[in-house]
Amino acid sequence: LTREEALKCVLSHFQHRDVVVGTTGMLSRELFELRMKRGDGHERDFLTVGGMGHASSIALGIAIQKPSRTIYCLDGDGAVLMHMGVLANIAAAAPSNFKHIVFNNGTHDSVGGQPTVAGDHKQFSFSQVAQGCGYKHVFIASNQNDITEAMEKIRSINNDGPVLLELRIKAGHRKNLGRPTLSTNENRKDFMHFLQLN
Predict the structure, then answer these.
(1) Gap between the Cα atoms of 75 and 89, Å rounded
(2) What Gene Ontology molecular-function terms does this entry list (predicted)?
(3) Which of 19, 86, 154, 197 minimizes the number of CB atoms within 10 Å of its CB?
(4) Are 47 and 22 in contact (CB under 8 A)?
(5) In CATH, what number does 3-178+192-196 get?
(6) How far is residue 150's CA from residue 124's CA, in Å, rounded to a whole number?
């Protein structure tokens, strides 16, 4: 699957009160457009524009502060590799509501498509790294059926996080992919208001 196809499948499993932190670059742009197509609004998503590698730290802070909400961190392989030490911090904090989804296409897609070491699945596995750090549950999916099955399992895990799902997908993105039409300040304000909801 492409990242956008995988993201569309993941998005279909979110519930109204779920909080989403999207990594920088193409994934956040795709998330913004998919939300528009679905008529969902954008207040549930924090788009980590220009903060490559920091989405998981932001999501961790929110998960700790909002233990009654489910927090999804939508991450990229290049971004996770950039700040991999955060995986250990997430596991040590052990937020039961933290769901970490890593879209692994083996490239730095947002900055030119340079390869990452995570593309070699025989040598590298995010799920094994996360498990070694202390994540409670890890999953791998590479097609729509696997993603659906994994998301159903993740949804059923309520008080035993953190959880990591590695999506092994192909590189590339649509050439006509737009950019968010909300400013980062507007996104922040809407998102902060959404976090205040019970």
Answers:
(1) 16
(2) carboxy-lyase activity; magnesium ion binding; thiamine pyrophosphate binding
(3) 197
(4) yes
(5) 3.40.50.970
(6) 20
DSSP-derived 3-state class of residue 44: coil
Q: d(Cα 49, Cα 25) in Å, to the nearest integer?
A: 7
CA distance 110 to 107: 9
| Cα separation, 163 vs 142, whole angstroms | 17
Q: What are phi and psi of 51, to 5 degrees?
A: -120, 55
Examine the pLDDT at 173 and tell me if it is beyond 90. Answer: no
Distance CA 90, CA 84 (A): 10
Q: Is 53 left (phi over 0), alpha (psi -120 to 50) or beta?
A: left
For 58, 91, 176, the CA distances from 184, given in Å and listed in that order, are 15, 29, 21
β-bridge pairing 114-115 and 107-108? antiparallel
Contact 1, 171 (CB under 8 A): no
Q: Record the pTM.
A: 0.93
Distance CA 34, CA 165 (A): 20
Cα–Cα distance between 57 and 8 in angstroms, integer? 24
As a whole number of angstroms, the distance between CA 17 and CA 69 comes to 7
β-strand partners of 75: 102
In DSSP terms, which residues pair with 128 in a beta bridge?
A: none
27-70: pLDDT as tens digits: 999 999 999 999 888 999 999 988 888 999 999 999 999 999 99
